[in-house]
Specification:
It is found in: Cell membrane. This is Cytochrome bc1 complex Rieske iron-sulfur subunit. The cytochrome bc1 complex is composed of a cytochrome b (QcrB), the Rieske iron-sulfur protein (QcrA) and a diheme cytochrome c (QcrC) subunit. The protein is 34% helix and 14% strand. With 349 residues, it is α+β, with helices and mostly antiparallel strands. It folds into two domains: 40-125 and 135-183; 202-333, Rieske [2Fe-2S] iron-sulphur domain (Rieske Iron-sulfur Protein), CATH 2.102.10. The strands form four sheets. Strands 3-4-5-6-11 form a five-stranded antiparallel beta sheet. A four-stranded antiparallel beta sheet has the order 7-8-9-10, with no helix packed on it. It is elongated.
Amino acid sequence: MSQDTPPEEKLPSEQTHGPLARGEEDPFADPGLPPHLPRIQDIDERAAKRSERTVALLFVISMLATIAFIASYVAFPIDKIVYIFPFGHVSILNFALGITLGIALFCIGAGAVHWARTLMSDREVPDDRHAIESPPEVRAKVMQDFSEGVAESGFGRRKLIRNTLFGAMALVPLSGVMLLRDLGPLPEKKLRATMWAKGKQLINMNTKQPLRPEDVAVGSLTFAMPDGLKETDEDFQEQIAKAALMIVRIQPDEIKDKRELDWSHQGIVAYSKICTHVGCPISLYEQQTHHVLCPCHQSTFDLSDGAKVIFGPAGHPLPQLRIGVNGQGNLEALGDFDQPVGPAFWERG
């Protein structure tokens, strides 16, 4: 075609390049729904009963697994480690909770899927699009379709499935209720008590030897732990996080708080090393002012005045440990800390 050809003659011919040439079929035409084929459960009531029992069995297994979840939470200690092939060494509590909760949720899902695939109606019904605001007759049709779906599902007629489903769905939420226990401290003394007790000797963290009064010089800072606690212990980190102690010797006439003086020995005072803000270990001591500083957020405590907070975000003083000297001349605790160690919590008195 030459360049002088008029533009209208360059357009494609309707007869040869239209949407469909004469005699051709539309490749995008709606093929319609395939013919409906009944399932074995639709024509054989015995097969339907077998499917019903299968679904009910899955729901019952879910119920038992939920009960096992709760029993595992109560029975297994959190620090019990066992070897399970092929997972290796795992916490028996975490393993039991994961397995039982997984089985409970899986069986509910599997039961619902099997119920839908074998017993509920599988007939496909096309429905044309309609306006967003449905007219009353459409809303009435939806409610009618819903009622028919409920009737076809056999929810009202198949009581065994219905009752076991209710049982499984009622028990599964108890798994979450049990886990709520971990959102806060249990009603025990885990946050209030440490390893310190009357007669526990103060062990130097560096030398691992019992501390004697003459070992603590005026102006020095010494860290101690309870006698009987070893770094090789499985729970060492957990225990030292609560029982870590700092020892400072102050001239008795410079101690302002009377109770602090009564709880000391010849000016040797013992306080928790754990900051009462977020639990950082305190390690900075100013000899002239008797102030200790937390390196995390600069909370400052006055060890000559009951370890009161004089600066920073900490909410309350450091807990003090009452100390004395035993028959061997070693420093010993005369009880536990006077207050729970570390950051404040809502149950704190």
